[in-house]
């Protein structure tokens, strides 16, 4: 009886492993051709000043709409891209598309104060990374000081020589750095003041239960205080409710991003929502 069950279980696990390998293989094959086929786009999410809910920046977020697989989350395809060596191309695409979009908007009078683009450690460690983004930035013509790159704590902590050099080059070009998902990593706090970072983005896992969970409220308050002490700007991620926005604003958090202010959306939609409208009299209204 036991033996029989064992055999069955083995077969079950093998099937499941096969299934997972097939899925991964399918995903990998699809991702490899997605770039050439133009299936990868960039969505933009507003970042707002909490004081008046004006637009202070946008975050560029990769989107993949596959004809066979439907829309695939970046949580799935970014790690895969890192694994199979495609993240350089994907990251460059996000950066280039976003810079060009901001430049296009400049030309029609919609001035986005800041552009944030996510960066993975694998990109930083790739040869030629700095040259590629420098070229894309120069071609777009937008000022480097308007561009912020988001990295996670683990990226900042586990810096290899190449990554460290790339981060310094980013700073020398005049771009800024933000720590994404702050609080979920393992930063030694003393490190913070030595890192070339200008902004902390409070991870949405702490924001989610503001108003309900005292621990999350304490952590959030502490991060805001830390930012203030170290002279770093603080932005809260994943703000979905008015209650959360009020709490954050009252605690001195300057900026926020989340579904309350808008989901990630296509460029045209973002402009419709946020660009100043000129009526016939030439005056600007929102
Ligand atoms: P992230 O950089 O922390 O981006 C924020 C994520 O939270 C986005 O998920 C966004 O859609 C989501 N989000 C924003 N507001 C809310 C909210 O109010 N509630 C909830 N529940 N979620 C919210 P998304 O677009 O699925 O991206 C996931 C992650 O994929 C990003 O996390 C980032 O780490 C990575 N990613 C996306 N684009 C790029 C890219 O161009 N390069 C790299 N290296 N990573 C990227
Ligand atoms: Mg981010
Ligand atoms: Mg984040
Ligand atoms: Mg993230």
> Helix content range of the residues, please?
40-55%
Query: What small molecules are bound in this structure?
Result: ligand C2E, magnesium ion
Assign an overall shape.
globular
Strand content: 15-25%
Provide the gyration radius in Å. Answer: 21 Å
Count of runs of 4 or more consecutive helical residues: 12
Straight-line distance between termini: 73 Å
Mean pLDDT metric: 90
Total E-strand runs? 11
Q: Reading side by side through the largest sheet, how are the strands ordered?
A: 1-2-4-5-6-7-8-9
Q: Could you walk me through the main structural features you see in this protein, from its secondary elements to its overall organization?
A:
GO terms for molecular function: nucleotide binding; transferase activity. It comes from Thiocapsa imhoffii. This is EAL domain-containing protein. Keywords: Cell inner membrane, Cell membrane, Membrane, Nucleotide-binding, Repeat, Transferase, Transmembrane, Transmembrane helix. It is found in: Cell inner membrane. The chain is an alpha/beta fold. The chain is 49% helix and 20% strand. It contains 12 helices and 11 strands. Strands 1-2-4-5-6-7-8-9 form an 8-stranded mixed barrel, surrounded by 6 helices. The chain has a two-stranded antiparallel sheet with strand order 10-11. Helix 3 runs parallel beside helix 5. The longest helix is centred in the N-terminal third of the chain and has 33 residues. The protein is globular, with a radius of gyration of 21 Å. The N and C termini lie far apart (73 Å). 33% of the residues are buried. The model has no long low-confidence stretch (mean pLDDT 90). The structure holds ligand C2E and magnesium ion (3 copies). The site of one magnesium ion has 4 residues, from strand 6.
């Amino acid at each position: 009886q036991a033996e029989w069950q064992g055999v069955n279980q083995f077969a079950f696990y093998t099937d499941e492993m096969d299934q997972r390998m097939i899925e991964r293989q399918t995903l990998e094959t699809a991702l490899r051709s997605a770039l050439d086929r133009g299936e990868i786009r960039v969505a933009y999410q507003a970042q707002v000043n909490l004081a008046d809910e004006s637009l202070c920046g946008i975050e560029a977020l990769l989107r993949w709409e596959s004809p066979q697989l439907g829309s695939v989350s970046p949580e799935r395809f970014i790690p895969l891209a890192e694994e199979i060596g495609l993240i350089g191309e994907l990251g460059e695409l996000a950066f280039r598309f976003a810079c060009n979009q901001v430049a296009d908007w400049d030309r029609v009078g919609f001035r986005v104060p800041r552009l944030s683009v996510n960066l993975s450690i694998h990109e930083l460690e790739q040869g030629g990374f700095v040259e590629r983004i420098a070229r894309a930035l120069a071609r777009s013509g937008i000022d480097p000081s308007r561009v912020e790159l988001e990295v996670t704590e683990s990226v900042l902590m586990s810096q290899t020589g190449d990554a460290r050099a790339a981060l310094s080059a980013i700073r020398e070009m005049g771009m800024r750095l933000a720590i994404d998902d702050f609080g979920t990593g393992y930063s030694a706090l003393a490190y913070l003041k030595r890192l070339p970072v200008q902004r902390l983005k409070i991870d949405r896992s702490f924001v989610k239960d503001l108003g309900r969970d005292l621990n999350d409220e304490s952590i959030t308050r502490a991060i805001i205080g830390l930012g203030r002490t170290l002279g770093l700007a603080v932005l809260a991620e994943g703000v979905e409710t008015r209650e959360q926005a009020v709490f954050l604003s009252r605690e001195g958090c300057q900026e926020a991003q989340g579904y309350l202010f808008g989901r990630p959306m296509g460029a045209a939609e973002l402009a419709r929502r946020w660009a100043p409208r000129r009526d016939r009299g030439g005056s600007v209204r929102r």
